Amino acid sequence: MAITTVLRDWLLDSDPSLQWQVERDLLGAPPEVWQATRARVATEGIGAAILAAQDDDGQWAGGAYFPAGYFGSAEAEAPGQPWVATTWALKDLRDAGLDAAALSGTAEKLARNSRWEYDDLPYWGGEVDVCINAFTLATGAWLGVDMSDLAQWFIDHRLADGGWNCEAEEGDSTRSSFHSTLNALRGMLAYEQLTGDASVRDARHGGEEYLLRRRLMFRESTGEPVADFVTHFTYPPRHQYSALTALDHFRDASLAEGTRPDPRLADAVEVVRAARRPDGTWLQGERLHGRTWVTVDAPAGEPSRWLTLIGTRVLEWWDAA
To answer: What is the DSSP letter of 229?
Structure first.
């Protein structure tokens, strides 16, 4: 399904953080065009709003993963969790395509001032949660921090079945999780691309094989669907897994390595294709609860520019192969 003029114009009528990706991934614009749009992320819309909320000590909301004063507060009793502390703000800015130069001095400030809520560990060393460490690995590499020790952590903590699980460090599980494994894969791929360090590549490939054996959606033991979350598409997904976010990772890895799509992705591709509406859009699913600095995408049930960008580029990548 070719992108229509109406759909193109609707996608381009958006925040620079989305617009530059539409130009690059869907319209094939020359680098000087989409790079100029990307440069606006620091001064307009989502990127500018999050940058303006940064604390003088380099953090956001006074905390590493949770805002200062969160535990024991009324907010801690509310559904979901807040998405405004340092880890989430940095992830949002990185996903938006912000030039790391706009955060000059932030890495050093966080090294001095930010500690994890878990055991008061130093920020750039990571902690014990796979997803948190994945976000930190990619963000640290983006900001020029030496993250080689944390990269090794992923090799050392990979489970016997090939993936990762946030609950493994507490002794609650020895089986990998779809959510944790995808976050680990995305963090490691970003680390490789940003640093050129291929030390985690074998572990990443093994984690990808874990998901591919399950065709991104199914239990290996019974062949039944894992759960409804695989077909629940929402943006931003934060830490949540879906067939769409997984396919977007496999597209990134395929383009980075010059490989063809694995045939075992076919079931997930058809789920994404089936969710596309006749006008070429995808609808926003139920959004994750919790406080944010800025509203990124459409309300639940309405056409989502972000999901439409991601769904369209995934299907174009697959169909072109």
So the answer is: G
Interatomic CA distance for residues 14 and 33, integer angstroms: 16
Contact 158, 204 (CB under 8 A): no
Segment 189-207, tens digit of pLDDT: 999 999 999 999 999 999 9
Q: What is the pLDDT of residues 102-136, one digit of tens each?
A: 999 999 999 999 999 999 999 999 999 999 999 99
Tell me the H-state helices in 237-304: 243-257, 266-275
Query: What Å distances lie between residue 179 and 161, 226, 227, 241, 288, CA to CA?
Result: 15, 11, 12, 5, 15
Q: Considering the entire predicted model, what is its pTM?
A: 0.96
From 169, 189, 182, select the one nearest 210 (Cα to Cα). 182
pLDDT over threshold 80, residue 169: no
Distance CA 282, CA 83 (A): 24
Mean pLDDT of 248-272: 98
